[in-house]
Amino acid sequence: MPPLISQKRQHPTQKGAPAPDEESARSAPQPAPETRPAQPRSGAAADAADYIWSVYALNGVAFPADSRRSLPALFRACKDRGEIDHSTAPAIGDIVFFHNSVDSNQDGRNNDWYTHAGIVESHADNGSVTLLSYRGDKVDRLIMSLESPDASMDRHGGKLNSQLRAPADDDAPFTQYLAGQLFAGTCSALGERAQFVIVDNWEPGMHLEK
């Protein structure tokens, strides 16, 4: 099977107008997002799950409704489908899950499972991957290397791992902070698709349609 090609939708557009596409030779324009009712769950992890759920729905992959705003439920849905992997080479379009990116239960311990996730956008020559994820009130790009999880930079100054967790004075001993260190598994749910449309202008409340 040929390598998966990621395609980008970048800038917000008015309803009914085609979204700009910087790879127009490979991708037809997509219509603008439309608003939808608010979901019951809230918070950063819920928005991260909603972003992934929405992008996958745009690409014709349906996850259960209860996983739309729950990263643990999204991971379980992947696991139930037999699509969880822990290899060091996630493919474009794969979902990458992370543990302990935040002390979500505020107990001062590193026991916070599936607190963040992103979608693989591209690969770099140094073995790292770029992920798109919703964090900090926007779609953000993270760098992760599972070949060198404890290094932030390579010997040439190229980035290997983004800092995914912010240090705090009361962090537990042995707390880790880099994306590769917090890796919790990969979900490969795209099947035999040769192309995957990614969206980097998503916001909570948007509904993506082809």
Automatic annotation (TrEMBL):
Residues covered by region (Disordered): 1-43
The protein, known as: Peptidase C51 domain-containing protein
